[in-house]
Amino acid sequence: MAPLPMDSDIFDVILLMCAYRDTSDEPHVAKPSNEDLIKLCHNMLKDPEHGSVYLLARKDDKIIGFASLCWSCSYKPYFGRQAILSDIYVSPNALGLDIAGLLLKQAYEEQVCQHTNIHSIIW
What we know:
The protein is about 35% helix and about 30% strand. It is of the alpha+beta class and about 120 residues long. It has one domain: Gcn5-related N-acetyltransferase (GNAT) (Aminopeptidase, 3-Layer(aba) Sandwich). Strands 1-2-3-4 form a four-stranded mixed β-sheet, with helices on both faces. β2 and β3 form a beta hairpin. The longest helix has 15 residues. The two termini are about 20 Å apart.
């Protein structure tokens, strides 16, 4: 697992985001164009503090999943800043390896435990 994408990851991240977009049949999942996904990935890499964090799961140096966290402030269940799990996706060839669970654990450890002003992760 690596906490944040690097410039060298951009092609693999874009491919994974395209797979997420193309395989989702849930009505709330946006269907951005390839060009919009490329812009998003480039912006994410240029400014990792832009309001959300992408965590990546790797196996044999290949990106096989991602989780996206963004921030909010809430009064319930705790007052203060919360991390919201916006998206999570695992490549179909990595299903059954508990990658989603590892991404959630990493999200907790990387974002909640290391930032004292974040009180919870919700999804």
